[in-house]
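@channel sequence for tomorrow's demo:
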Amino acid sequence: MIDDQPGPVWSDWLMLTISLFVISFFPALLAVNVGVIVPLALSCLVVVVVIPSAASRGRLNVPVYALMLFVAAMIAFGIGKLAGAQSVHGTTLGVVISFIFFLLVATAAGSFLGIFFYRQPTEDSTASTAEARVSSAVPAMEDDRQ
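structure tokens (generated this afternoon):
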């Protein structure tokens, strides 16, 4: 007789809360411009992923990532102030400025993560060893390279 036991009270409240949340934000979902939001979200995600992955390979050094962080944040602050102006809000120029703002914020976030994922390159990693690892399509060229 499993049905005789009442379920946890928190599950009822959780379902009610989720239902109210979805109902209250449904009109906002209808007003979202998917043609702008999806490319913006994907491009910001790419920027946030590419910068730390480059840092994990040791492409740049930590001061460059810190400089990118602060420069992107300062420029984003100025552009954010410009995007919030009454004359720009809701226009095509406002959408472009907002797009640039979010890309700069993504760059700043990626640079912040890049500082944590930075890995010092080893001494034996030079351009010649990286070039030697690449195999050519023609085996005769491979012999000439070595």
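heads up for whoever presents: The CA atoms of residues 50 and 115 lie 13 Å apart.
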